[in-house]
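Usage

Read records sequentially. Each one opens with the input sequence:
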Amino acid sequence: MSSTFSFGDKLPGLVERIVESYGDEGRVQHIDRAFLPAPRQVEELIYRLVELMYPGFFGRQDLTRHNVSYHVGELLPRIGYLLHRQVEKCLCYRERLEGRSDGEKCTCCDAATEVTDRFINSLVEVRQMLSADVQAAYDGDPAALNCDEIVLAYPGLLAITVHRLAHELYKSDVPMLPRMMSEWAHRQTGVDIHPGARIGGSFFIDHGTGVVIGETTDIGDNVKVYQGVTLGALSFPRDERGQIIRGAKRHPTVEDDVTIYANAIILGGRTVLRKGCVIGGSVFLTSSVPEGATVAITPPALRMRDRSLEGKPREPEGGDFQI
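and closes with the structure output:
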């Protein structure tokens, strides 16, 4: 049985009511304004970049040493076009938002060209860092069969891949686009890394889900993080008017060779995890940890009841015992 739906003569009234609802302060509408990045093109940009970072794994899979140069020669111009267009939109958006460039020649196109050129030239270095991340995942996870499995299946690697790319744009002071890229990765993997976080080489997120890494976090080399870990802010510094001071250091510093186990919460811009320390699972930490130290919570007492003794007179030793 099939049916069709029709608004009939209700349509004009419904249209009018919805359009009237657009007359708010601009929080959830972008009308009579321009220069917003396009989410679908940002998503395509990410897919193309991931394809470039891991040739033969994503996108075209019949690559050989004879045709790979042709493939990269096709891919790079598409990436350059997508990136330049979105960066230009983001820069123009910020200028209009801040009330600049009215009546002046817009320099967004030239600035976008510089950003795009700088980004493209950083990709070889980004690939080198990602190669070390893949190796760190293989070395750190005995369940990994090989590096191919890590590239194709590990959400933590996808999250750090997108982060390293978004971070390059963040360093170039591109608004909005880096955050859109990071939030795309967040939706795909469950790992939330702000594009401003600085992360060293050979970084491994095991399992991934629920990891949160804040904007001003500094992470050294050879750091391993398990699922559910939060590197967050303890408080937000405010100015004399009570407004949050943005950009202040408010997230932890993690030095080289640190391991942070599942569901640990480390907060505060003054909190430093020194080289080689180990943070146990479910630890809540707001103070620094010395080099090589281990922090763990007291294991809970396990109490068991022998139900076969229920209803019987209690012996001095009782039917309860503690481990």
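Summary fields computed downstream for this record:
- The helical segments are 11-21, 39-53, 68-97, 108-140, 147-153, 155-171, 177-189.
- The chain has a mean pLDDT of 91.
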